[in-house]
Amino acid sequence: MALAERSLADRAARAPLLLRMGLVAVAVVLLFSVLTAWVLETAFRDNAADAAETRLEAQVLLLMGMVEVLAEDDVRVPQMLPESRLQLPGGGLYARILGPAGDTVWRSPSAVATELNDWTREEYFAYSMTVRWQLDGESVPLVFQMLEDRSAFDEQVESYRYSLWQGLLTMTLSLIVALILALWFWGLRPLRRVRAELDALRHGDRVHLEGPYPREIGALTGSINDLIDFERERLVRQQNALADLAHSLKTPIASLRLNLEGHAPDHEDLRRQVDRLQAMVQHQLNQAQRVGPVPFQTPEPLAPVIERTCRALRRLAEHQGVSLETDLAEGCALRMDSGAMLELLGNLLDNAVRHARSRVRITTHCDGRETVLTVDDDGPGIDPADRERVLERGQRADTREDVHGQAAGQGLGLSIIHTLVSDHGGQLEIERAPELGGARLRLVFAPVGD
């Protein structure tokens, strides 16, 4: 039973929207038509009944004006009555007068040949009026009664009902057709527009659902646009992560090569380099899957990661004739996982070593207002006009060779640094190093207490 009910519910849910809306419209119109017919017929019936009672009252008053009372049981009425039906046997309109004892003292010719023992039957309209007639100083009560056959009334109501239902049926069918056409051509037009724009999206002719749409569909298209942006951002992040991974691995691989080419390879250093490579790969995989702000992180001390990165790059730096200097304040930390911090510092120092002539200096500073990481080098620096451009992916201040005569890279280092800093709520500032004269990369983060 439950399976059958679920199957029925599934079929109902898959029913076309036009069919569902059309059925609702038909049900509403039919209900409205039935209620309208009932109200109009009831009102017509009541009005016709009131009119019949008013006519009977008028006939009684006319009859009273013609009556001559000679005694309690002697009532004279002229032969010419006010209504011709009163004079015709079975004419459909009947009258009588009752005396004080309740006996009939007069009846109309129409009632003489007609058995009217019960003057309160449902097939008649009845009206009765009691009048106290003054006779020789005495008050004589007389009851004037008037009956009218309901057959004419019933025929009138039946004729009205037929005309009413005929008109309502025509109007209802026309209204249903008009509603279905309106639903198809106007009500469902926004959905057809959504479908057309989705087709355009699939073929690359659009980037979003633009509308305009009704409020209800606008909420749906807004959610679709958010989903499109989410998927597009995730795709871009995955593509960037692959490029970033390739770029990030260049420096550790170069360091490994130098170590292996040495006469006495440092196995401990090799192990650290492999660990760093593994951490970078894992971090880039995490980056490729993450879209949006970085989740809450516990503070990670800066000094140990900086020293670890310097040890990994020292052999490469010495090979290029560059010395690494550090001036690290105690207690400085960032809300950043170790993999991201390793990648950030690896790109910072790799960028500085490749462009420095002989010196690179790493400085940290932290107080209650901000945490600052500064990397200075004595290379050619970055021209102020290029400082915003070099933060874009694939853009470099110099696309030919670095100061050591090596081919320029792909222009990803600074963009990776900028992305990591932005993802963790920091700011990247490019300046001229005041003492060394080259470039200064100044990374500013909120204090870990915030």
TrEMBL record:
Assigned keywords, A-Z: Kinase, Membrane, Phosphoprotein, Transferase, Transmembrane, Transmembrane helix, Two-component regulatory system
Cross-referenced SMART domains: HATPase_c (SM00387)
Membrane-spanning intervals of the chain: 21-40, 164-186
Domain HAMP: 185-236
SUPFAM superfamilies the UniProt entry points to: ATPase domain of HSP90 chaperone/DNA topoisomerase II/histidine kinase, Homodimeric domain of signal transducing histidine kinase
Predominant localisation class: membrane
Localization per Swiss-Prot or TrEMBL: Membrane
EC code(s) of this entry: 2.7.13.3
GO CC annotations on file: plasma membrane
Top-rank taxon: Bacteria
GO MF assignments: phosphorelay sensor kinase activity
Pfam families, per the entry: HATPase_c
Domain Histidine kinase positions: 244-449
Catalysis performed (reactions): ATP + protein L-histidine = ADP + protein N-phospho-L-histidine
Official protein name in the record: histidine kinase
